[in-house]
């Protein structure tokens, strides 16, 4: 069974964190979604990493299966966002998509973000940075 890795967990995996590595082995293979890839590359661009480092970041991302959103993913996203909003809870937009992928694929999510705790449908593996 795979595990979906969010952006914070992906960075820990890149830094070879023992905790994330252990999860990646337990739930092999680790996968990401297109929103995680975009957030990861945005972080690199925002940090103004040099071109060779940006190329390394892209090569690192290419080693993962990348889940793409479908109409079903969008439906789950809409339901989650609507349900949380009626409870007065908002999370960053990409994280609704990440959660929707985890729910759609029936796979656990490795994350460093506590706001995923507001989504009980997810098999969550919370990692501290």
Topology summary:
Layout: E1 3-5, H1 7-14, H2 18-26, E2 30-33, H3 34-46, H4 51-62, E3 65-67, H5 71-86, H6 93-105, E4 109-111, E5 124-126
Parallel strand pairs: 1-2, 1-4, 2-3, 4-5
Description:
The mean pLDDT is 95. A five-stranded parallel beta sheet has the order 3-2-1-4-5. The chain has six helices and five strands, in the order βααβααβααββ. With 129 residues, the chain is an alpha/beta fold. It has a single domain (3-126), classed as 5'-nuclease (Rossmann fold). The radius of gyration is 14 Å and the shape is globular.
Short précis:
The protein is of the alpha/beta class and 129 residues long.
Overview features:
129 residues, alpha/beta, Rossmann fold, 6 helices, 55% helix
Poorly predicted parts? none
Total DSSP helices: 6
Shape: globular
Name the strands of the widest sheet in spatial order: 3-2-1-4-5
Would you identify the CATH H-level superfamily?
Answer: 5'-nuclease
